[in-house]
Design goal:
With 237 residues, the chain is α+β, with helices and mostly antiparallel strands. Among the domains are: 31 residues; 126 residues, Immunoglobulin-like. The protein has three helices and ten strands, in the order H-H-H-E-E-E-E-E-E-E-E-E-E. The strands form two sheets. Strands 1-10-9-8-5-6 form a six-stranded antiparallel beta sheet.
């Protein structure tokens, strides 16, 4: 006891009290922090590393939009297993974007037009195609007649038959001119044609169709033998 009293000096007592207060105060501060009282200002820069973050603790909903860009991600730190594919739904790959643009351009400029006309002899002439300044008019007579007209000066039009490989063209097709696109051929009840029309602006119209007349019997089971049918398509590019 005497030995203890000799060592129990004023300085020793005061230092022990100081240590107690410091430790006790630290413990108090650590256990009495208010909710949301620690913010980014209280965290030392680089104090929180990836090793100190619980796996899956940080989700896309907790990251401010635009807060993380490529410059803030360490090269090679993210692998496919680290990325939720759903989070990339709105991020276009450059190649994907280019493909989309190409597809949109194609949709805007390219089109396929169905051609279908069925009539009887004596019916009024009918326009069966009107595109890029080109108009095709069908007249149902004893044999089909299709006439082509243009509203674009210095266009080019040509046509070839599948029956006899006959070919005709007008390389300076102008408004007011008439081009007999079926050339008056009568190769039987069915005739097949291919034509191309081009404007100086580079618009191309490729037309493939067949003419059917009913001299040898009704079309589609019709009740008359003088019906006309034009069916095909026009591809515009």
């Amino acid at each position: 006891m005497k030995h203890l009293r000799k060592r129990l000096t004023y300085a020793n007592v005061m230092s022990s009290i100081a240590v107690f207060l410091v430790l006790g105060g630290t413990a108090f501060a650590a256990t009495q922090l208010g909710k949301n009282s620690v913010g980014s200002k209280q965290i030392k820069k680089n104090a929180v590393t990836s090793a100190k973050i619980k796996k899956n603790a940080v989700s896309g909903a907790k990251i401010k939009n635009g807060a993380v860009d490529g410059a803030k991600v360490k090269d090679g730190s993210l692998t496919g297993s680290d990325i939720n594919l759903g989070t990339l739904g709105t991020v276009p790959n450059a190649n994907t974007a280019n493909s989309a643009n190409t597809a949109n351009t194609a949709k805007k400029t390219d089109q396929i037009i169905n051609i279908f006309y069925r009539g009887k002899e004596g019916d009024s002439p009918q326009n069966i195609l009107n595109v890029a300044g080109l108009t095709l008019t069908e007249t149902c007579e004893s044999s089909n007649n299709i006439d082509a007209r243009t509203s674009v000066a210095h266009s080019v039009i040509d046509v070839v038959t599948a029956q006899d490989n006959d070919y005709e063209a007008n390389i300076d097709f102008n408004p007011g001119e008439l081009f007999e696109i079926d050339m008056g051929h009568d190769q039987g009840p069915t005739e097949m044609y291919t034509a191309q029309y081009t404007t100086p602006a580079g618009v191309n119209v490729v037309i493939i169709w067949h003419d059917v007349d009913a001299e040898e019997g009704p079309i589609f089971g019709g009740s008359t033998a003088d019906e006309c049918l034009v069916a095909g398509l026009a591809y515009v590019s």
